[in-house]
Amino acid sequence: MFQKIKERCEVLSKNFKEINPERKALLEKLATHIQGKINGDIGINLIYVCTHNSRRSHLGQVWSKVAADFYGFNINTFSAGTEATAFNQNAIHALTSAGFEIEKSGGTDNPGYEVFFGDGKSNLCFSKTIDDESLPKENFAAVMTCGDADENCPFIPGCDLRIGTTYFDPKSYDNSVLQDEKYTERSNQIAMECLYVFSLIKK
Predict the structure, then answer these.
(1) What is the bridge-based pairing of β-strands 76-80 and 159-164?
(2) Averaged pLDDT for residues 142-166
């Protein structure tokens, strides 16, 4: 894992007290689900879902992969939406600022981005809908990162667990003086909560 990202994980993992009890109870349900997969020697697949699959869901996909690695677990993480748009540049900037190395592939309106968090450690991010062929069709948890997606996806076929860990959308601060600060704030919140989940899991 890249040193800058590792250091951020170390700092965030010492501040779980900032997560309120109600939120912790929700995250613990996800941890219990993951623990069950580990106990049964079953692969772990997490799909983070948001309406446009452009910001919060990608941050969830990336940071959950990092959090698992930080605690010594290997999992598969994905993101999706109720509609496909593109991985937002402000969210990408928040990740590069945190120490990620990101390589863009393709020149379309919805390119792919390989997000590296260490040597040989990466995650492919691009915007897609929940029925995209690249996503698992069974044995996965759907983590809803926004209220709109939770309401507009009343049923997700194949998921073992559906859980709503909604986050405030940093899009509200686009093109403002607080833009970078708010995207970093949301990135750190998602990172901390992902770390909290995996801190509870035993090998």
Answers:
(1) unpaired
(2) 83
